[in-house]
Request: fold
Amino acid sequence: MKKIYVYFIAFILVFSTTFSFHIAPTFFEKRIDGPGGYQEFTLYNNTTHTQRFKVEFHESSGNFKGSSHTWTEYSPKIVTIKPKSQSIVKVFMKAPKETLEGEYSTYINFKTIPVPELKDEKDNVIQAANKLMLNVSLEIVGYVGNLKPNLEIKDLKVKSGEEAENQVEFKVLNKTLKRGIYMTVRVVENNENFESYEIGRVGANSERDVTITLKNIKKSNVKGIQIIETTSGDELIKKVI
Reply:
């Protein structure tokens, strides 16, 4: 699962960089029982042509408890993005009653629809502005149940790295048995200022070695770290050096 997830994120980043097509956020991570979970995805078009995409949801990879694609409502079904602009896709996911606790996923898929435009005034032939046909999928995860995060930080230390760069190293254990968590780390200074670093998703009942190269904080000024849930902004755990 871990390798698949890493390869998939790399796939998204390649498409985003090469074709100037970017999606944010790249996660869902909402509780989807009860009232359900809602998320807006922003699609960015950094090209000089209008881009149009068909949006669909597909069955998940099977790496989680089940697929949530039939529980999903979204709008619009077709999204058009003007040059150097952005558009929003709204997603609502609600699990049926009696759905078992755990994580459920689905693929959100964006497929290019060619946008015709006149080449120039002297040419009567209508050509497609979209030279590159994209078909990009992003696996998003929601969860069922009151699965409160349970984390542990181990082996926290600050050290000098290569070329005099200072680094913070630690292990984070996600002891939440049925739920992965998307995490951001704040490295906190003695004056309570901090730098934030998104470390991505740590799966249910798993461990991650984390190394953060500090941007502007001196080694002697590091007070400790906080782990924030990226989706909600809530502090999950903190530890002092």
User: Anything to note?
Assistant: Residues 1-18 have pLDDT under 50 and may be disordered. The chain has one helix and 19 strands. The longest strand covers residues 102-112. The helical segments are 2-19.
